[in-house]
Amino acid sequence: MHQLRKPYLLFLGDVDLKSDAKTAFGLRDWCGGDVMGEWSLPSATVTLELPRCSPAQAAARGAGSLVIGVAAVGGVLPPHWLPELEAALHAGMDVVSGLHSRLTSFPSLVQAAHRGGAALRDVRHSDQVFPAGTGARRSGKRVLTVGTDCALGKKYTALALTRSLQARGVAATFRATGQTGIMIAGSGVAVDAVIADFIAGAAEALSPDNAPSHWDVIEGQGALFHPAYAGVTLGLLHGSQPDALVLCHDPSRGTIEGYPNCPIPDLQHAIDRYVEAARLTNRGVRCVGLSINSSTLSDAAWQAYAKELALRLRLPVVDPMRGGVEPLAEALLAA
Amino acid sequence: MHQLRKPYLLFLGDVDLKSDAKTAFGLRDWCGGDVMGEWSLPSATVTLELPRCSPAQAAARGAGSLVIGVAAVGGVLPPHWLPELEAALHAGMDVVSGLHSRLTSFPSLVQAAHRGGAALRDVRHSDQVFPAGTGARRSGKRVLTVGTDCALGKKYTALALTRSLQARGVAATFRATGQTGIMIAGSGVAVDAVIADFIAGAAEALSPDNAPSHWDVIEGQGALFHPAYAGVTLGLLHGSQPDALVLCHDPSRGTIEGYPNCPIPDLQHAIDRYVEAARLTNRGVRCVGLSINSSTLSDAAWQAYAKELALRLRLPVVDPMRGGVEPLAEALLAA
Question: What CATH number did the domain enclosing A55 receive?
């Protein structure tokens, strides 16, 4: 389980495309209260419009970690970023990275971390050994976001649902299973990075026993119909033993992204299969609604689509970006 | 992908329970032509009834590897075994282990391997990085053994089916996915030890393009209805893209072993779900029969059980230990 030290200084490197700074914007939007400011190299052209703050200044003000908030070409850490990271480490701040390159593979960073008494946190990787899943029931309630494909809103939906529950005074915790989610939450497990035998065990560790009325809102990964990642999805589903599922979907996709021979399944079929698989570890599981990424639809088309879908599936249908997730929170709490 | 050097010298340590030497007996029975002899400490009381041969003698006669063929308490390598392993390494033989303890964690073994120009092979572990699964169709034919639980004959069935196909003059290769299978085959991937994201990709690498009439007979792992390991099973199923499935089952089990709250599913339901999941990467997949571990049944009870099951499911039903797997080979080749 990763445990990160907040508050954060967000590092943007020399980014010149807003889309490459997706992680930094996500952190600003979802855990802004934990973000002290931003820092970048002089050639960067993108800004988060947060106070600029050098690693030394941030450390002096109590920052816990410098977080690399940008994607690097090929996932490789560019050597000219190293001096800024070393400065943070020397000042006692941890460095957090979701890049493919492991921070620990850079001797100068290892040395600087040692000297500053700081840690290198590679949230894409997982060196922890988990026990195998037990299937034993845990106290507290759990909802898992699942999808018809990857990258269509499972994390966003889980974050929005957590906020909505908390705003209603319901005790709720976002449980992160991917690198950006882990940075936002400050803890979590990159389930796709654990040893295959321990996927379900890692998911069990992620949402331990809790108060009976507490909700863990668990970020889903992959899709049950995905030719590369379905194993991760199924292990996460079994280990999460959810009481409720939210199915996330993007109506503009006819096939799994990058797999033109794999059609997106019918939505009722997808719900049936997710619920059936989840029943293995929680007989009472049900699907409480759909979260649609409708960014390709006009307002009118979205209204018509949502109405038809809600009637056909007899479930609330929302787009978190178009009206929020309140109907999902209500359905969750109704049972 | 593990690649082991044959022929083998089988090492039995100081074993005094036949059941602890399961791996050694399996190697003797399934790749006897690759086994040069056995070696053990003076206190061992179990023998394979093979020629005794010290590591130095075996190396002089051309042995490629000393294979640890016994389970150790807690999976930990006992220090008093080290001198025999070091002798093998000094003489230029690799050492192969399926224990939890990594051979590479013992400095004296690392040193001996270096001096002898030999390798340490931890087949339980996998340090290889695989690409993500592509789902792309490969040439050649594939059959995968799947199960209603773990440890009920998936490896044995795959080995027996490979032999049966080869005896009929059909080009066939056993593809190992677990440690004992890897030792028998001399190569393979421990799929439960790969990073979760790459289960399907590892399975794709294990059974590459082949001649159109060649059969890969792939050892299954886990079960689709297992609360700890279903993710491994599903990823292996998708990556294997099997043309045919053989369902393995033990009628004496009412629940998943070690999980008394998880009932074994109905057999027709299990077949339907395996075939449906496999259709994601191979639309033409079918179940060609059942392989039953009937060791708890009398001869009469087995005959009655097999007859009833074959009628009900309209598929051949065999027990490899009671009459062999010929009906499965026939069904495989019939289509």
Answer: 3.40.50.720
